[in-house]
Amino acid sequence: MNVTKEMTGDLTAVLKIDVVAADYSEAVTKELKDYRKKANIPGFRPGQVPMGMIKKMYEKSVRAERVQRVMSEAMYNFIDENKLQILGSPMANNEKTPSIDWDNQTDFTFYFDIAMQPEFELNLTDKDVTYYEINPTDEMLDKFVEDIQKRFGKFESPETVGENDLVYGEVIELDENGDIKEGGIISRTSISVDLIAMATIKKKFIGAKVDDVIIFNLAKAVKNLTELSAILRIEKDKARDFKSDVKFKITSISRVTKHEMNEELFNMAYKGKDIKNEEDFRKAAKEDLCSSYVSQTDRQFMNEASKALVENTEIALPDEFLKRWLIETNTGKLDEKEINDNYNTYRDSIKWQLIESKIIDTYKLEVSTEEVKNYFKDALVRSYFPTPSDATEDQIKETEAAVEKIANNMLENKEQSRNVYEFLFEQKITNTLKAEMKPKTQSVTTEEFAKIISK
Questions:
Q1: CA diameter of the chain
Q2: Reduced to 3 states, what is the DSSP secondary structure of residue 346?
Q3: String of b and e for 159-178 (b: at least 16 CB within 10 Å)?
Q4: Which of 29, 38, 35, 78 is nearest to 54 (CA)?
Q5: pLDDT band at 431 (very low <50, low <70, confident <90, very high)
Q6: How far, in Å, CA of 212 to CA of 269, rounded?
Q7: Which pLDDT belongs to residue 45?
Q8: Are 302 and 432 in contact (CB under 8 A)?
Q9: Is the pLDDT of residue 378 over 90?
Q10: Residue 394's pLDDT is what?
Q11: What residues have CB less than 8 Å from 125, skipping those under 6 apart?
Q12: Terminus of the chain with fewer CB atoms < 10 Å: N or C?
């Protein structure tokens, strides 16, 4: 077997792969013998079918499959051994490749077109990019602090419904006559009284008891489409068209009494920060709230940074090869006209992939298995295994062992691990660009940031 490369342009080449009988004949013979052992043909005992008959039935297809396999292996081995950084994937050159006579031919020659990745300079400085920091309003901070107090508050089951209670029950859709609608929605759900927008409907709930039945218009009571769809357990598109009155029978009432603003709350919410007063607590809460926006601001920054780098980095690309490659790899999905009309978009995407790869190589970015595992462990501790302030050493060790075991199980889930791996890699690329590109920092409100994104 022989593979040679001939340059056809600055970044394009053709690979010639010669396959001779010695490269595949032994494998073909072995496979035909296996066919003979398994063949079940009337008139012959198992394993006794004449080899001539087996060859007549299977030899051509087996030889074709084996030739294709050894050809492909030889081509990719050549690419690996010669450290060729290719763009896209090799494409068969049907003009150069001679037609094949599978009945009589034993030696074969194949031609494939390839394109090499271009060399280019990576310059992360002097790019006009902005990193937005979302600054929450006092009202947002007050709400966040209140949520923390509720999170560590006292849960009760009062006899009557109050203004901030969560009411559990069953929603039953009614028809225009006030009867249960045939085929209508029936949903076991919960309704937060403070989310009820219409005062007359809220008044029906306040003071109500378990087993009381309240009839009201749910769409008028809950204006938020997301909340409405959650209550009805239906998709937003269906919730948007829901206008019926409903009957709601209360099955239970839940109330959270906010935790007092004291050192016990400070220690439970921000253990290890040594917070002594409300002012310091609010500062810690503000940092916490701001950090919750980081994923959004990072994403916006990456959009700006990648666009700036693509627009300002000179990268020569083999356009005709890439157009042909896009057409071949999207057969049945996109036609040639669509690809040609939108080629600049595809080209920018390929440029960014090359830039991203260069950033990873230049700054030696990598994500270890241990980092993925630690991500799982941190998420588990935050959500399911918070350590109480009065936990004993044995309890801490027991929790750590449980977290370790679950994290190892999560690590074995390939799809889950791959998603975390990609997320952590994206974080490292983002942090590298933030450090190297030195973007301008601009403080904005959530409303201002929403307008920036919409543009």
A1: 94
A2: helix
A3: eebeeebbbebebbbbeeee
A4: 35
A5: very high
A6: 37
A7: 78
A8: no
A9: no
A10: 86
A11: 436, 437, 438
A12: C
DSSP string, 6-60: EE-SSSEEEEEEEE-GGGTHHHHHHHHHHHHHH---TTS-TT-S-HHHHIIIIIH
Q: Could you give the 3-state DSSP secondary structure of residue 453? A: helix
Are 319 and 302 in contact by the 8 Å Cβ rule? The answer is: no
Give the list of residues 6+ apart from residue 381 with CB closer than 8 angstroms, or none: 387, 399, 403
Strand partners for 202: none
Residue-wise pLDDT tens digits, 56-66: 888 999 999 99
User: What's the mean per-residue pLDDT of the chain?
Assistant: 92
Rounded to whole angstroms, the Cα distance separating 62 from 28 reads 6
Beta-sheet pairing, 166-173 with 440-444: unpaired
Torsion of CA 146, 150, 151, 152, to 10 degrees: 110
Would you give the distance in Å from CA 135 to the centre of its chain? 27
State how far the Cα of 172 lies from the Cα of 160, in Å rounded to an integer: 22
Structure tokens at 183: 């085929």
Within 8 A by CB and 6+ apart from 294, the residues are: none
Amino acid occupying residue 19: V
* Residue of 256, 250, 157 lying closest to 208 (CA atoms): 250
- CB 151, CB 257: distance < 8 Å: no
Residue 245 phi, psi dihedral angles, 5° rounding: -75, 160
Task: Please work out, in degrees rounded to the nearest 5, the angle formed at the alpha carbon of residue 421 by the alpha carbons of 420 and 425.
Answer: 115
CA 77 vs. chain centroid, Å, equals 32
Q: How confident is the model at residue 387 (pLDDT cuts 50, 70, 90)?
A: low
Please determine, for residue 299, whether its predicted confidence score (pLDDT) is greater than 70: yes
Q: What token pair was written down for 46?
A: 């198992």
Contact of 189 with 164, CB cutoff 8 Å = no
Q: Alpha-carbon distance 171 to 175, whole Å?
A: 13
Tokens of 79: 């690419």
Taking a C-beta distance cutoff of 8 angstroms, is the pair 331, 94 a contact? no
How far is Cα 363 from Cα 358, in angstroms, rounded to an integer? 8
The letter for the amino acid at 395 is Q
Residue 86, φ and ψ in degrees, nearest 5: -95, 155
Residue 99 structure tokens: 């037609």
Q: Find tokens 């669509």 and name the residue.
A: 338
Q: Residues 318-326: what's their mean pLDDT?
A: 94
Residues in the chain: 455
